Amino acid sequence: MKSRAAWLGAGLAALVVGASACQDQDRSRQERTDNSPGHQVEQAQAQSEKAFDDARDAQKEASSQQREAARAQEDLQHKQQELQEAQAKAQKEAQEAQASQQQAQARTQQAQSVAQQAQASALAAQRQAQQNFATQQQQASNDSAAANQRIADQSAQQQQAANQNAATQQAAIAQNSQAPSAQNSQEQQISGDVLSASAQEVLVSQAGEPRLRLKVGPSTQVQVDGRAASAADIQEGAQVRASYRTDTSSGEPQALRIDATSRAQPAAPAPAESGESSPGAR
C-alpha cells in the first residue's frame, strides 16, 4: 500500500508540473496572439484535456510501476522462501552427515574394540595351547621314562631269574657230577625252545623258563632245519631237541647232538628213546 501511495503522489506531482508547463506555454502564446475570449477558452480546454491525458498516462505509468514493484516483491519473497528452504535443506543434510559420521566413528570404535578382544583371545588361546603342548610333552617324556624304567626293571628281573635258574641248574649238575661215573656218562636228551645260542653254548628253556645251558664242542653235531650248521646259526625261539652227557670233571652238560627247527617249519615230535629223561629227573 505504501508503494501504491508513493506512485500516486508521483503521478499527481507530474500532473501539477504538466499543468504549470501548460500555463507557461499559454502565457507565451497569449503574448503572441490576440487576447480574444474564444481563443482563450479553446486554449484552456486544450490545456485541460492535455493535463487529463498526462494524468492518465502518469496513472498508467504508476500502475505499471506498481505492478512491477509487486512482481519484484513476489519474486523477492519467492527467492527468500527458496533461500530459507535451501538453508533448511542444507542444515538438515549437514545434521544427517554429522549423524552418519558419528555413527561411522562409533562403528569403527566398536570394530576396533572387537578386533582387540579377538586378538587378545587369540593370544591367550595360543599361550594356552603352548602350555598344553609343553605339558603334554613333559607328560609324554615322563611316561616314556617310566616305560623305559619298567622295561629295564623287567629285563633285569628276567635276567636275574635266568641267572638264578642257570645257577640252580649248574648247581644240580655239579651235584650230580659227584654220583658214580656210570650215571654221569649216561646220554640224556632235552627238548624245548632256544633262549640264546652262540658258537660255544645253547641255552634251552622249557615252559618259558631257562632249563639247561648246553656246552658246544668240536665234536657236537648241529643241524638246523635238517641241514648241517653251527650252533651260532640257531635262531632265538627255535625248537630244539638235543642229546648230551654231563662232564665228570667240570660238571657241565656237553652237547652231543643238537637238532633245531625254526618256528616257520615246526618239526614233528620224535618218538621217545630208551633212557630219555629230563635234567630234573634224577
TrEMBL record:
Residues 1-21 form the signal peptide. Residues 20-193, 206-282 are annotated as: Disordered. Residues 35-48 have a biased composition (Polar residues). Residues 24-34, 50-60, 68-82 have a biased composition (Basic and acidic residues). Residues 96-189, 266-282 have a biased composition (Low complexity). It comes from the Bacteria. Keywords: Signal. This is TolA protein. It comes from Corallococcus interemptor.
